[in-house]
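We modelled the chain as a single entity of 211 amino acids. Its sequence is:
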Amino acid sequence: HVHQGAVLLNGADITRAGIRSRVLSGISYIPEDRQNYGLIIDFSLEDNLVLKSYFKEPFSRRGVLQQQRIRSHAGELIEKYDIRCSRGSLTKVRTMSGGNQQKAIIARETQRDASLLIFVQPTRGLDIGAIERIHSQILKERDHGKAILLISLELEEVMNLADTIGVIFNGKLNRIASADQLSTEEVGQFMMGVKGGRQNEETDGSRKGKG
């Protein structure tokens, strides 16, 4: 629940908007818990790939699902994002590996052409190959002009992907700066609360004075 302030997306106030309204306004979300919040694991892959758009054309007409269009859409995403699945679009998501489940979520969310993509721990529990592919996809979306909010506890991931870094400690934003102004060690110190925002601003000021 919001206690104060407002959430604006492209100038529109979405603070109290419902989930579907936020989705339709241009937000894509890749959650940390892929099985409980990103997918319905007992559904087929093709049904999971239209979870946020099944009620719109071309997937639905006059309230009737267009299964052939849903299936062909799934086939396109399976090929484009290299989703490995034993029975193609009919594969039960439960039977897929964690990496392929994550690729399915990212395929669904990025193909929606949202203006803001929120990634939360997007590579948690994945192998190196899957991590590299997901990192590449995040950077590709950024290069296409999308706003990316990456929330991660992985220091290396943050340092490799972020243009601007904000560090939260005890529920408060402890430091925010361009990525090229922060070292890995500094970010780690802010994460642990060893270094405070005010102290760092003073340090930055003395550096600027010397520069």
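As a brief sanity check on the tokenised model: Confidence is low (pLDDT under 50) at residues 198-211. The longest helix spans residues 128-143.
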